[in-house]
Structure formats: structure tokens, C-alpha cells
Amino acid sequence: MINQWKALSFRSLLFAILFSNWLYPQHKDRTIEDITLSCVYEAFTKGGVDLKKELESYEAFLVQNNFLKNKSGKEYIAFLQEMNRINYIPATRPNALFIRLLEADFKTNYDKDCVLKKVITEGNFSSLSDFKNTKLHRLEQAVKKVMYRNEADFKTISKVHLDILDESDYEKPYFKTMFLLSIALGSNEEGHEVFEKLPPLPDN
What is the pLDDT of residues 50-66, one digit of tens each? Predict the structure, then answer.
């Protein structure tokens, strides 16, 4: 009976990961955000990039160049609101950073089973019943719907994030890291003054 329960639990866990990539472990010390973030860090480390250090420097760059007033979650929300208004990323990034991130070859180095392995070995969870109510899952599902409808412009994506996440979420390492990574990969590499003079081209 116990072995059957374990097999059923494992299948349920695998099903949840395959279809959502996110879980909601019921424990105090380590959240699914921490586990997922560690997997992202590991993939970039394999590619020779210290992602945490790179993005800390990039966040400082954003503040120094007035794309963010400070590093608070409130400023990240304001950034998203501006992105929604102009339908573009209201920031630039050093081209060298962009190249380093690309050369890290995240897609190849990321272990798709990393989260599953860490949850099994490190995550002291007791139930999967609440994972669909987590912001991670809700955000992922909302983005998938946008992508499916081929509506993934900056305005729509920023609205999805604004609808689901709040200031406190951008104080958390996982959401802040993924946000900075997205900006670094998706923003214009030109200088601020040039960026202001060159709005995105209209659709044909």
C-alpha cells in the first residue's frame, strides 16, 4: 500500500512538472522559487557566467542611468507600467552583457529535470494540491495563453505581469532575477539618448 502511494505520488509530481514546471511545496525553509532559481544559476554557471553577479551589476546600471529610481519592488512595477504605456522596454543594456548571456547557452545547459530532482531530494513538501494557486503557475499559464494567441508584444506581456505580480514579488530573488534577465536580453543595446530618438518600428 505504501509503495503504491509512493508510486502515485511520484506520478502526480512528474505530471505537475511536465505540464506546469512549477510546484508548491509546503515547507518553511526552501520555496519552489529558490529551487527554480538555483537551477537557473547552475545552467549559467555551466556556461561560464555568474548570473547573480552579472544581474546585480545590471540592476546598478539601470539605477545609474535612471531607468529605475532605486531597486525597490515599487520601481519594478513603475517600469512595467511604462513598458505597457510605450509597448517597448524602457531601458538599454550593455552589449557586452547581452553577448555574455547569449554565449552562456542557457537552452543547452539547463537541465529540464533539475527542478524535479531538487524537489525530490531537497524539497520537504507534503501536497501538490495548492500549486495551481501559486503566482508562478498563474503567471506561466497566462503567458502561455498570450503566446498561443500570438499576442506576445511588450504591452501584453507587461500587463500579464502587472495583473499577477505586485511590489512584494519583485523584492523576491526569483522574480527579480527573471525580470532583470528578460530586460537584459530583450532591451535595445543603444545608448539612452539614441534609444529615445529611435522608437520601435511599426508593424508592416
Answer: 999 999 999 999 999 99
Q: What is the pLDDT of residues 138-165, one digit of tens each?
A: 888 888 888 888 777 889 999 999 999 9
Grid coordinates standing for 120?
525530490
- Nearest CA among 91, 75, 113 for reference residue 187: 91
- Give the whole-angstrom CA distance, residue 196 versus residue 200: 10
The structural domains of the chain, with segments of one domain joined by +, span: 40-112+131-197
Distance CA 50, CA 64 (A): 21
Closest to 115 measured CA to CA, from 27, 26, 13, 44: 13
Please name every residue paired with 92 in a beta bridge, in sequence order, or none if there are none: 188
Q: Using the Cα atoms of residue 186, residue 189, residue 195 and residue 198 in order, give the sign of their dihedral.
A: negative
Q: What whole-number distance in Å separates Cα of residue 3 and Cα of residue 28? A: 27
Q: Look-up: residue for cell 529615445?
A: 196
Cα separation of 28 and 192, whole Å?
43
